[in-house]
What we know:
This protein is an alpha/beta fold.
Amino acid sequence: MSIESSGIINEKRLIDKKSVTFILGSTQSGKSSLINFLHDPSGLKNPCVIGNGLNPTTINPDYYHVEYETKEIEKRSLRDIEIKTIYQIQLIDTPGLEDKKDDENMIRIYQKMNGSIDIGIPVLVHMFGKPFTESYHNILKDYKKMIPGLFDKGFILVVTNLSMTERNIQKLQRQKIDINKWEQDFILNLNQSFNIQQRPTVIYIDSYPISNDEMECSITSREFILSKIINTPTMKITSTLFLKPKSWRLVDQTWIAQCETLLEGYREGIAQRNNQIKGFEQEQKKLMSRLSSKKEELEKYETELKIKDVDSKMQVATWNSTKAWRIFTQEDIWNLHSDKPITQRQRIKHNNCSMKVTREDEHFDSGIVSGILRGTYADVTIYTDKKLFYQRDIISAKELVSHLKPEVEEMQNRLSSLTDSNEVTARDLKSILKKFNQTQKLRDQISAEFSPLNEMIQRYNKIKSNLWTLDLMLSDINVD
């Protein structure tokens, strides 16, 4: 802060505009010359190289800083304060819209923008007298797509090579050039490129003024342009999708075709695996039903063997005699028979009975029980081995078990094999589905006309590193 002799206090403030302003226009429209004039009207400091009128000057988009100073007097109770505010404005000088490397220029512009979140009102530069070509029209449409919303807050149309001094106006009149009609026709052509929501602010400027009048007029235009830039609200672009370059979209058609071929193969693989899994499940269901039935049958015969094929005796026949007391002698005869060999006999007599065996062999046990006075009381039981009694049943059961066991084991092995095959096919299906989803996601990404800025920069870097292949693209995609 300083105090002048007049008693006015000087106060200086520096404001750095974080936004960037695009300087757009065709080749040799005067973009670089305009930036030089905005930077220093005296022409002593020229940050931009100026072309020879034949070839484009700006090959790569670049940042340029321009300072703009404003003054205002603030009334205070004791003395006035003159406040000087210096705005630092960032401009991007873009290559000509009709240059052959438009796609690379777009990516370079994106790289310049990367990390900058605010975009200021754009400046469209056109040299007075040059025609509005079809190429100009198409690329303007691309710029609108390239940075969606770029022109939503309007734009500044700067017509170069013409300062609106009284002398120049009279010259145009003598040449029968209606500047208002020219301006209307030009804006109409612009409107065909994109629907203009706000009529542009039109400024005429000569970046190489010769006379004092031209210099004064151009400086006024410079003040207006810079003032418009700092006073127009900026636009946020962090979450915006950006237009892919045309050459990328052409290359992407090849990738899309390859993706579709892969997807078709994956669809066939998925259908095949699904049919295999369905077949496995159907066979498993039938096999499990048959296996359950065979297991029940096997269990039935094994249980039968546990009961019958054992080392124990079983009663074949029994006889008993119980006769009341008499004076005379009494006799009773037993005659027991067994189809199976008799392996054990049990004879029990009571009181004064006597027992006499008349036949004792493998299948018969016979005899007489005699009793005097007191009657006859006796029991006879014959036994055979269970294995002998159930010999046929045991042989039959063993034979059935010997057939059922391998059959059940074979079914279990087959069921286990089906389960393993089903699991392998399911894993294979999961892998194919993942590849299918990856490829589908990639196809959708490269089919899209727009892409997030960070993906655009990553892709550009991969192209430069020769890492832009279908396999590498697929490996970069994460699918849950």
